[in-house]
Amino acid sequence: xxxxxxxxxxxxxxxxxxxxxxxxxxxxxxxxxxxxxxxxxxxxxxxxxxxxxxxxxxxxxxxxxxxxxxxxxxxxxxxxxxxxxxxxxxxxxxxxxxx
Length: 99
Prior knowledge:
Elements: E1 2-9, H1 15-26, E2 33-39, E3 46-51, H2 55-63, E4 69-76, H3 79-91
Antiparallel strand pairs: 1-3, 1-4, 2-3
């Protein structure tokens, strides 16, 4: 599964934090594979894209920030997969829902 975690820091991003974050990406929790990590300007300070087998492993990434930041993690669906699902959905004629 693909995940995107947005991070809004409550503490300063200092050299120590940066080193810990770098170590997290180089030695991720079991089953986690980081694809991209960005420092950003604006609403969020950090955005991370990664794969994990399930929500449980994704939670271990969010817990890294527990004392320092507010995080929000979303399941990500690649454009190609979403397009296939949408195409299949629009091809199937669905009966209107009746309560």
